[in-house]
UniProtKB/TrEMBL annotation:
Primary location class: membrane
Origin organism lineage: Bacteria, Pseudomonadati, Pseudomonadota, Alphaproteobacteria, Sphingomonadales
Location in or out of the cell: Cell outer membrane
A single Gene Ontology CC term: cell outer membrane
Protein name, as recorded: TonB-dependent receptor
Length: 905
């Protein structure tokens, strides 16, 4: 009987798990485009212990065993892959699942794997055309529908994705065998979003000190330790409506040439380009800490009620992103003798992401756009912030005398801003491996070397213009008004949420204010915040494979050691800062244009021993044990040598020093890899091709963590010298640990009578327990490196970034003839999610679960119909900050539906 669909994929995955030496879980198919998901990220989260961080309603970064994505390593055809996020976590939405044939997750390490995965290594693989052994032309077309996008005025919520692939083999006579594989995909879709978000900076406010005409009085760490109460209040809050378009093109290609039975040459390339635009319409409450009264809060400082006054801002933004990925390489495998095999590999991976964001802000004023007094007669409007018990959606009630839908009330302090952010990540690598087969207990010796050079650079350029000519404001205000672009905004959120406000077209506003839709970036994009990091790695390993009998019990496995030397060179800029006063009375700091370069170097050498052993207790029962040392590198952006200066909101400052909220190091070049000693034991029972039960226990002992430190640095600002504390992150000596249990059960209910014997499924569960600590930069514990004294934090530390205690994945499938049905359930408990580059306040994502559906029907051997539904219960994503329960943001993405047809020729 020929097995197809999800059952075939599950059978292949069980078979591969059984063959592997390390503890491995996989998802693979012998057919092109048969991974059961719309994206690689969604496919990975069906694998035991893997879960994703959701962005735009889809799976993006992956965490293994409930541990953060920064503790994992991802390779593409055995090579490191670059990304445009500034970290090492690959954005799996960049790769079409239709063009990836295999996914493996190595839960334990072995010496010949590329280093960099305390939690594990994710290996993506494309097809090798000669191994496919047949000609195949495949065409696939999917249409998509998003109900949320359909609510956007002028949009029908429709999208599409088309995929074409070709695989063939040729007998070239004396030249040997040649295989070719090529695939193309275009994806045009939309990812609507409705969200409320508080700012990324929260302050501990003293409720006992009244400040009727200013921001609340802050509580220091020392005051909090002495018993001063505090409530956690964000600087600002935003209601945001988003409509967007997203076009992605991808090309994958491979040529495999075997000129002789002993020589195999592979060349592969992957290219993807994403053009993305996002129209944002924001209503900002920009001064939530002004004139606060009647604060209600709990013992953790979580705010439940407050009354205050704030400026209101109508902000229109057009964000345009272009992201380009190019990767590939050449691999040569030579069977030098019957026993000796030599492999050489050279690879290249580059990602360039450029964001251009044009936004225009209009603020409230005592006068409307026509110069008339408003009902409020003040720049600031009264508001009430209230959180009902058990609710995740704060209700912000604005003084009813102020009509947020009246365009004329947004009349002052026009700010025209253009931001361009570019991140560039490039990896060049090469490796040489040799394997010598032997007789006896030691079956082979493998050795090899690897060299790589990673470069990461970024810049964030800003052109900002403010003006307060009311006549100009009035002309642009009247000419660029738009109707609120969405029906039923936040209609699914609890409480009485705002449903609309006055909106404007930012491109029209740019034209009206500046005479151009885009003034372009500054001629000089240098800044003290820029990063320029080079990381060079040299590694060598020696590994032995063994196989024999322990009494009557077969055993096999490997042991070895990998040595890794890393050299980091990080360049940062330093400049005097000048003070620019905006038209609204606020200030900003700009570089003087004269820069000095600071170069910081760091070096580390680590040894990574490993042991994997498999005991065949019975032909269908395996016991695997593993012990190894592993490392996870800091994100490239976390190795920067720049500085980021945050200013307080508002205008009433007696000095520049008072206006500076926080200066943080834009990375810490001397950060060392996070190291851990690890032990795993797995019991696996293989009843038949469709059935598996496995249980794995694991333990990880970390040799250090991270802690903020404060060092005083001198800054020249506005012609005066200031000594200002700068916060940066360094490795701590504190030890921590993670232990956990991972269980998988897969089965087909073949004992049921027909047609119910087509039912089957898989369920996996991971439990992890960790005592790791990540401190909040503003409010957590902080170390004085000169005295060695640690000041206690005001709020609890977070755990590992991405750490979830509970992760569940379940799939139920039904196969009958050409009909395949599948339901996929994913659950992840709450976790701390670091910001890219670190050095920010603590952000927690609440636990969430999603349900996806998938169906296909084979009309014949050549034609298949497909239906898919994603997030069918419209589960929102909810985040807290800086402590759990303190609501920062919630997102609604809605469900998405897909229908398509696949043709095989």
């Amino acid at each position: 009987m020929i097995v197809t669909g999800f059952r075939e994929t599950l059978q292949t995955s069980i078979s591969e798990k059984r063959r592997e030496t390390a503890i491995v879980d996989s998802l693979s198919s012998t057919e092109v485009g048969d991974l059961p998901a719309l994206s690689v990220g969604e496919a990975i989260q069906t694998i035991t212990g893997a879960t994703s961080h959701r962005e735009k309603g889809g799976a993006s970064e992956i965490s293994l065993r409930g541990l953060g994505s920064f503790l994992s390593n991802t390779t593409f055809n055995g090579r490191d892959a670059s990304n445009g996020s500034g970290d090492r976590a690959v954005n799996f939405n960049q790769f079409p699942s239709e063009l990836v044939n295999g996914i493996k997750i190595y839960k334990t390490q072995q010496a010949d794997l590329v280093e960099g995965g305390v939690a594990g290594t994710i290996e993506l693989g494309t097809i090798r055309p000669l191994s496919f052994k047949k000609r195949r032309v495949q065409l696939e077309m999917k249409g998509s529908f998003s109900p949320y996008q359909d609510r956007v005025v002028g949009s029908d919520g429709l999208g599409w994705r088309g995929t074409a692939s070709y695989v063939d083999q040729f007998d070239a006579g004396s030249l040997g065998e040649i295989g070719v594989a090529v695939g193309f995909q275009r994806n045009k879709t939309n990812n609507p979003e409705e969200t409320y978000a508080a700012s990324s900076t929260w302050v501990a406010c003293n409720p006992a000190v009244a400040v009727p005409a200013g921001n609340c009085s802050e509580v220091s760490r020392e005051q909090a330790a002495a018993g001063t109460p505090f409530a956690l209040v964000p600087n600002a809050a935003t209601f945001r409506q988003i409509s967007e378009s997203d076009k992605r093109d991808a090309v994958f290609g491979a040529i495999q040439w075997k000129p002789s039975p002993t020589l195999d040459i592979n060349l592969d390339v992957q290219y993807s380009k994403r053009d993305y635009s996002e129209n944002r319409r924001d209503l900002n409450l920009s001064e939530l800490r002004y004139g606060l009264t009647n604060m209600e809060y709990d013992e953790n400082g979580v705010l439940s009620h407050v009354e205050g006054k704030t400026s209101l801002e109508a902000v229109g933004t057009l964000l345009e992103r272009q992201e380009e990925y190019l990767g590939g390489g050449m691999n040569v495998e030579w069977q030098a003798t019957d026993r000796l095999t030599i492999k050489a590999d050279a690879s290249y991976s580059r990602t360039v992401r450029t964001d251009v964001e044009r936004s225009v802000r209009l603020r409230t004023d005592p006068l409307d756009i026509y110069g008339n007094r408003t009902a409020i007669n003040n720049q600031r409007v009264g508001y009430i912030y209230d959180v009902a018990p058990g609710s995740y959606a704060p209700t912000l009630t604005i003084d009813p005398r102020f009509n947020v839908n009246d365009h004329s009330l947004f009349s002052d302090d026009a700010r025209i801003r253009r931001d361009e952010l570019q991140r560039r990540n490039e990896i060049i690598a090469g490796r040489l491996d040799a394997t010598y087969e032997m007789d006896g207990f030691l079956r082979g010796i493998a050795t090899g070397v690897r060299w790589s050079k990673l470069t990461y650079s970024d810049y964030d350029d800003r052109v900002e213009i403010t003006q307060d000519d009311r006549n100009v404001d009035r002309d642009v205000n009247l000419g660029c008004r738009t109707i609120f672009p969405q029906r039923d905004y936040l209609s699914n959120a609890p409480g009485g949420q705002l449903s609309s406000w006055a909106t404007f077209d930012p491109v029209c506003q740019f034209q009206g204010y500046l005479g151009t839709e885009d003034p372009g970036r500054n001629d000089d994009v240098r800044s003290v915040a820029n990063r320029d990091v080079t990381e060079k790695t040299f590694a060598a390993y020696l590994m032995a494979n063994y196989e024999g009998d322990l009494g009557n019990m077969p055993i096999r496995g490997n042991f070895g050691v990998r040595a890794v030397q890393t050299r980091v060179t990080s360049k940062g800029l330093r400049s005097d800062l000048e003070v620019v006063t905006n038209g609204d009375g606020s200030i900003r700091l700009v570089d003087s244009g004269v820069f000095d370069t600071v170069t910081i170097k760091s070096k580390s050498t680590r040894f990574l021993p490993s042991l994997n052993a498999i005991f065949e207790l019975r032909p269908d029962l395996l016991l695997r044990v593993a012990g190894y040392r592993a490392m996870s590198r800091p994100a490239p952006s976390a190795l920067g040598a720049g500085r980021t200066i945050q200013l307080e909101d508002g205008t009433n400052f007696s000095s520049v020093a008072d206006a500076i909220s926080l200066i943080t190091a834009n990375g810490s070049p001397r950060l060392k890899p996070l190291m851990s000693w690890n032990a795993d034991a797995s019991l696996e029972y293989y009843l038949n091709k469709d059935s598996l039960f496995s249980a794995t226990v694991y333990y990880k002992q970390f040799s250090g963590g991270f802690i903020p430190v404060v060092l005083n640095e001198n800054f020249s600002i506005g012609g005066q010298d200031y000594s200002i504390p700068v916060v940066q992150t360094q490795n701590s000596s504190q030890k921590s640990r993670v232990y956990g249990l991972e269980v998988t059960l897969a089965n087909r209910f073949s004992w049921l009578p027909a047609p119910f014997d087509g039912l089957g499924g898989k369920v996996s569960y991971n439990y992890a327990n960790s005592n790791f600590k990540n401190e909040d930069i503003r409010l957590g514990a902080v170390l004085d490196p000169e005295t060695g004294v640690t000041t206690p934090g005001m709020i609890p530390a977070a755990n590992l970034s991405g750490y979830s205690k509970h992760v569940v994945s379940a799939q139920l499938y039904y196969s009958l003839g050409g009909l395949n049905l599948q339901a996929i359930y994913n659950y992840r408990s709450k976790y701390y999610q670091d910001f890219v580059g670190g050095n920010s306040q603590l952000r927690y994502v609440r636990g969430n679960d999603t349900v996806d559906l998938r169906a296909s029907f084979d009309i014949n051997k050549s034609v298949q119909l497909q239906l898919q539904a994603v997030n069918i219960f419209d589960e929102p994503k909810i985040t807290d900050m800086p402590v759990q329960g303190s609501i920062r943001q919630y997102h609604y993405y809605g469900s998405r539906y897909f229908a398509g047809v696949r043709v095989k020729l």
